[in-house]
Design brief:
This protein is mainly beta. 12% of the residues lie in helices and 45% in strands. The protein has a 6-stranded antiparallel β-barrel with strand order 1-2-3-6-5-4.
């Protein structure tokens, strides 16, 4: 029987460098000429989970506007799909000012 891991040991499947924060907020997705709306479930400094049905596929890229004040513009790539639930995406921010705004937002949100 393998030795028991300490309670604070990282999970083997956990690859994130930062714990995500709980955020329930609207997001507008610009995908080609279409505009889709979704709901953000959680967010970190480089990724988030978006409840979106039907989901986009792994590798799909899109621009998004996170509904915070002021809205954050994000360049997103789908990394994982949970059928019937949504998509896990990574993102980059085209504007430097958005990085400071995201850091301030993350600091005030509860950990998952």
């Amino acid at each position: 029987m393998p030795p028991e891991l300490p309670a604070n040991a990282p999970s083997e499947t956990e690859r994130r460098e930062f714990n995500r924060r709980k955020l329930v907020g609207a997001i507008e997705i610009e995908w080609g000429s279409s505009k889709l709306t979704g709901l953000v479930r959680d967010i970190g400094p480089h990724g988030m989970f978006v409840e979106l049905t039907p989901p986009l596929w792994v590798g799909a890229t899109f621009f998004a506007h996170l509904a915070v004040d002021p809205p954050l513009r994000l360049n997103c790539t789908v990394r994982r799909v949970e059928p019937g639930t949504g998509i896990a995406v990574t993102f980059e921010m085209p504007e430097e000012s958005g990085k400071a705004q995201l850091e301030a937002l993350l600091a005030q949100l509860p950990k998952l």
